[in-house]
Design a protein that fits this description.
- GO terms for molecular function: DNA binding.
- It comes from Paracoccus cavernae.
- The protein is an alpha+beta fold.
- 47% of the residues lie in helices and 14% in strands.
- It has a domain of 48 residues.
- It has a three-stranded antiparallel sheet with strand order 1-3-2.
């Protein structure tokens, strides 16, 4: 897979529509007048997205109350 991708391929790579891709304000590279997305930047963007179901390191007030009851 090439490192620099046009919008349709970059959108497919991230699993979003081209319209959504354009709203993400991701930087593009310019090569011979073409505006291309760098796959490494797409990977970085995806890696920085929050993950669903991850345990929070914060302790909420319910946890504190329940610990005190034990």
């Amino acid at each position: 897979m090439p490192r620099l991708l046009p919008a349709p391929e970059a959108a497919y790579y991230l699993g979003v529509s081209e319209t959504t891709l354009r709203t993400l304000a991701l930087p593009r590279k310019v090569l011979r007048g073409k505006r291309l997305y760098d796959r490494m930047m797409l990977d970085e963007y995806a890696s920085d997205l929050p993950s669903e179901g991850r345990e929070s390191e914060e302790v909420n007030s319910c946890d504190e109350v329940l610990r005190g009851m034990q």
